[in-house]
Amino acid sequence: MWRIDYLSITIVFFISLVGAFNTTAQTQSQQQTQTSTPLEPQILQAIESETSKIQKEFSLEFSKLDTKVNTECNKEFIWKEHSTQHFNAIKHTFDETNKSITTLTKWGLGILSAVLGGFATFIGKQYKDFKQIQEDFRQSNEDVRNKIEGLNRQAQELQETRKQTKALQKESEDELHEIIKLKEDMKKKDDEIYGILDFRKAIKNTKIIWAVETENVDDSEIIGELQNNGFKSIHEWKVYHKPPPQKDECDFMVYSYNNSTNSSERLQRVLTFLQSTEKKVPLIVYTYNNGDKSKLPDEHVNMLNKKYKYYALSNTPGNFRSLFNGLIIGQGVSIVV
């Protein structure tokens, strides 16, 4: 609207300016005609020609301007018409949209109400289920707590029982160790007893050769005493007229010395026999004869020392018992071993 008024003002101003210019030109021409001398025909023709050109150019420009103004006016009219149509279309669209929105709003509110109602019902049911679950969980938790407490009590009782069991086991092990030790001690004692019995048996089974130098010697009392003490294997060897016994028949020898004229020869027979045995047979040279304490001559002692050192001298029954017990025990150890 403002653009149309500006163009009109511009056109009017331009026309007024052209008209004023023409008026001024005519006035000046008249004054010059009146005051001056008549112009040359060529000059007048030139002026008219220029004036005609200016008028043509002005007419052409005015025609262009008029065409332009009409064009702008038509555009302005078309724009207004289009604007009105566009406004009506927008208004129609707005009204339809408003109706649709109103309809959708009503439907939406209905659907929303139904959804909210269903959701409220669902939430109410879920809340009720949740409360039930919470109550069940609380009850289950209480049951679990009670079970845990019961298990803890059982664990404590079991631990106490284990302690008591360990104490009883320790006592039982100690008693068992004592029993085992007692059994071992008893076994050792049994072994010792059996060893002693075996030893006594071995001693009692010792093969004793009682060698007699002369026939007028009577050693029946002490031989009987040995036999009463269990020595049953006692054999007499009458050196003066019998040959020596077998080697395996002699474990122990008693030589009843009588210091006769044949003592050296008979002692030599005894020593020769003992030297022929594979084992070292203990020898007691018993010089007690009919209450007489015979002393062994030095030459016979030297003979013993040179040819057979495993001997002992006895000149009384008491001394004989001591020597015999000592030698027979030693001999028994060697026999048992």
Would you write up a description of this structure?
The protein is an alpha/beta fold and 337 residues long. Among the domains are: 2-79; 205-336, Rossmann fold, CATH 3.40.50.300. The protein has helices spanning 2-35, 41-204, 220-228, 263-276, 298-307, 317-336, and strands at 208-212, 234-238, 252-256, 283-286, 288-289, 292-293, 311-314. The strands form 2 sheets. A 5-stranded parallel β-sheet has the order 2-1-3-4-7, with helices on one face. Strands 5-6 form a two-stranded antiparallel ribbon. It starts with a helix and ends with a helix. Residues 134-189 form a coiled coil.
The major beta sheet can be summarized as:
5 strands, parallel
What ranges have pLDDT less than 50 throughout 5 or more consecutive residues? 31-38, 333-337
Query: Alpha-carbon distance between the termini?
Result: 155 Å
**Pairing-aware structural class of the strands and helices?**
alpha/beta
CATH structural fold name of the domain at 205-336: Rossmann fold
Question: What portion of the residues fall into strands of 2 or more residues?
Answer: 5-15%
Helix fraction bin: over 70%
From the alpha carbons, calculate the radius of gyration and give it in angstroms.
Answer: 84 Å
Number of E-state strands: 7
**What is the ordering of alpha helices and beta strands?**
HHEHEEHEEEHEH
CATH architecture of the domain at 205-336: 3-Layer(aba) Sandwich
CATH secondary-structure class of the domain at 205-336:
Alpha Beta
- Globally, the shape reads rod-shaped
| Strands in their spatial order, largest beta sheet | 2-1-3-4-7
Could you name the CATH homologous superfamily of the domain at 205-336? P-loop containing nucleotide triphosphate hydrolases
The total count of helices amounts to 6
> What is the mean predicted local confidence, pLDDT?
77
